[in-house]
Amino acid sequence: MEVSWFFAESVSLLKSSGSDDHHSYVIPLFVVLFLACIVIGHLLEGNRWLNESISALAIGLCTGCLILYTTGGRSSHLLVFNGELFFNFLLPPIIFNAGFRVKKKQFFRNFLTIMLNGAVGTIVSSAIISLGSIHFFGKMNVGPLKIADYLALGAIFSATDSVCTLQVLNQDETPLLYSLVFGEGVVNDATSVVLFNAIQSFDLTNINTAIALKFIENFMYLFVASTVLGVFVGLLTAYIIKKLYIGRHSTDREIALMILMPYLSYMTAQLFDLSAILTVFFCGIVMSHYAWHNVTESSRVTTKHIFAILSFAAEIFIFVYVGIDALDIEKWKIVSDSPGTSIGVSSILLGLILVGRAAFVFPLSFLSNLTKDSPDDKLDFKQQITIWWSGLMRGAVSMALAYNQFTRSGHTHLRENAFMITSTIIVVLFSTVVFGLMTKPIVKIFLQCSIHEPSSPSSKSLGVPLLGYAVDDLEADYQTSSFNIPRPTSLRMLLSIPSHTVHRYWRKFDNSYMRPIFGGRGFVPLFPGSPTDPH
């Protein structure tokens, strides 16, 4: 009885905008939900079917149901899904932590494959979803949608959920797949947002060759400029910390600098209408390569855990947030007279997602295999199916983009927009729960031989995951690694030799010019009592 009163009172206070006691009920409720997610996530650690994202989503849905029950079915709104909150406060720590923890050597070794899947693949998937939506939705009683809406749907539903995929795949059991899927996921999110922003910034009512070329030019500019900005802020952070060595007086200040500089890069990218996701991701890579090694040893440990905690908390909040908002009664009432149409739209979108992902995963995997000489380095058909399946989940990025396109301040009263929002919710819930539940068994079934085979010298390179919690190993073998370039043939000659050559020249340039200016691994401060790096 007290719990029902607690939920009802929280909702009533939220609806009373002038109430000063609103946060005294809502914030404790979300703290309780956080704690529940942490405890349940720990209990499900070894579960074959469930993961933390699904459990958080389920907790959010149950909370929404309880709120609906206590308010007599009038509202489930504790918070309106706010795109500004999501993009400005929840997404930055997740993406930065991914870049900060990335194994750079493995990321750039698979850079071509990751960029093909993450950038080119996203564009292919977006085109298929947009064209399919134009073809099918025009025959359904959805309502008048503009060409920009159809193109936005392609960008919305081509954004995979890298957070959920990261929790589903195990980097120890499937290191290569984990590397490719997660690397693709980060680039995919950035590409989807860049594509979405480009669509919104152009008048696409009358498309011609000039507009198409301008669109492509703007898309490439956003990609390059965002990456350059992230690298610049990362290098600036490393230079400031190395030059001033703030930690000799206060580790608090250098930790604060490590936290605030990447957020500055993110907000600066937002200010100049760039891809903030791409900016903060590459800022994280550069800071882990240079700035992280310039701080004191205690600050290294502290920043590593702070970044991980902020990322974890943001992920949990997003899934609880999505679960609660999914039961907002307002949007469901608008489409309640046509439940068949709503289910049909959702089914078509799910089908287009399946086809769109298959349209680039299998052809690009085939091209990738042409560049490999050893059979152990190639992706077999079962591994390709796993990659295809693992990227089918849609999450908070899709939700945020859909709300940005089809709502105003989190609300919509247009029938066609309500169809798009409710269909997005259905796709996100279905893909996260159903595809998420089935991913672990599929990995076990299709990759059973690969998982239980002892590692051999030929497959040793595949056993290094892209990401890891041990930041101390971010640059393992960086200075001692050697390259034995095999005699190449055909396509391998075009792709393998340049990548090895560029890496070798980069190492020489980095050791000769970059590290003396920006520090990095092996940096030894000139001040007495400063930490030294034995490696």
Overview of this protein structure:
The chain is 71% helix and 0% strand. It has 535 residues and is mainly α. The protein contains 21 helices and no strands. Helix 2 packs across helix 14 and helix 18 runs antiparallel to helix 19. It has helices at 2-15, 22-43, 52-70, 83-100, 104-109, 111-137, 147-157, 162-168, 175-201, 209-244, 251-271, 276-289, 291-294, 297-325, 329-334, 339-370, 381-390, 396-406, 415-446, 448-452, 490-518. The protein is globular and about 70 Å long. It has 2 domains: 1-71, no CATH class; 83-449, Na+/H+ antiporter like fold (Up-down Bundle), CATH 1.20.1530. Mean pLDDT is 77; it is low at 1-20, 449-491, 493-497 and 527-535. It comes from Cannabis sativa (Hemp).
CATH third-tier fold name of the largest domain: Na+/H+ antiporter like fold
Number of strands: 0
Beta-strand content: under 5%
The number of helices is 21
Going by CATH, the architecture of the largest domain would be: Up-down Bundle
The CATH class name of the largest domain reads Mainly Alpha
Q: Sketch the major β-sheet.
A: none
Q: What is the average per-residue confidence, as pLDDT, rounded to a whole number?
A: 77
Q: Over the alpha carbons, how many angstroms does the gyration radius reach?
A: 24 Å
Instruction: List low-pLDDT spans.
Output: 1-20, 449-491, 493-497, 527-535
For the record, give the distance between the C-alpha atoms at the N and C termini, rounded to a whole number.
61 Å
| Structural class estimated from helices and strands | mainly alpha
